[in-house]
Amino acid sequence: MSKTHDLIVIGTGVTGLSAARQALESGLSTLTLESMLYGGLVTNINELDGEIQGSGIDLAASLMMKVRKLGGEHLPASATSLAADADCIVVHSDAGAHRASAVIIASGAKLRRLGVPGESEFEDKGVSHCADCDGPYYKDHDVVVVGGGDSALQEALVLSEYAQRVHLVHRGETFSARKHLADRIPGHANISVHWRTSVEAVLGGDCVQAVRVRGLDGGATDEIACAGFFAYVGLEPACGFVPDAVLRDRDGSLLTDAGLRTAMPGVFAAGAVRSGYGGLLADAVAEGIAAAKSAAALIRP
User: What are phi and psi of 236, to 5 degrees?
Assistant: First the structure.
């Protein structure tokens, strides 16, 4: 079994990197565990909106560089399970087993799928999850964006810079996004909002060609011709590797106390994987720091 660290941080999104930086500054030997590229979903955003400015990739790169300079270790692997073993926590991954005095779960969340026919089949063939990344591919084409929250409106606004028309499909009668985002939508003549409408299927041949929708009022179906499909209907926590001993809310997010401690001694949770997470980038940073401070207090009281 591999060497014992003071702390293992699972996930290298903004929350995980913030936790690792704080832990290292507190003198804890720290290992980060992540199979994907560092930064998480924030790296898909070219222009951050809120207290933290700049691009997502620049923010993530800055945090990763600080963690490396402070001596943080990194293992490109996926956590598969957690288990208590005497006075430490064992994190099992596809690269082996790793021991630590404490663990911070900062594995984040993944975009929730609609689960409609064609959504999986046309992945990377017109079904996309990053307007900043793929927007230029849809120059002078029509696209469909699904959702009414911050992410959906942000992506619709980005796509409006490239697409001939952005069809914004939303089940509700009003947006749930922050007001300043909702107020910008009417100012873009090439964004058409389809209120009280649901998506039934993504259609096409070799790639996306249309989306079949149904009006929730009259029940009539229609097809929207398009080349791209972007769904932003919420997130689901990425915590399938976490044992049942760590309690969850009805949505599957991990429950913690005010110190970000879970029901499993020595295991903390922070960021989008945690029930009660605020959702803003500033919250991701703050929770990572808070979890690391709680872990440091446990390890070196």
Answer: -125, 135
Give the containing element (helix H, strand E) for 74.
Answer: strand 73-75
Enter the tokens of residue 16.
Answer: 């995980």
pTM beyond cutoff 0.90: no
Beta bridge partners of 165: 142
Distance CA 61, CA 121 (A): 33
Report DSSP state, residue 51: S
How far apart CA 28 and CA 20 sit, in angstroms, is: 9
CATH class of 4-111+235-299: alpha beta
Q: Over 223-287, what HEC string results? A: EEECCEEEECCCEEECCCCCCCCCCECCCCCECCCCCCECCCCCEEECHHHECCCCCCHHHHHHH
pLDDT tens string 102-145: 999 999 888 888 999 999 999 989 999 888 788 899 999 999 99
Which CATH superfamily includes the segment(s) 127-231? Answer: FAD/NAD(P)-binding domain (3.50.50.60)
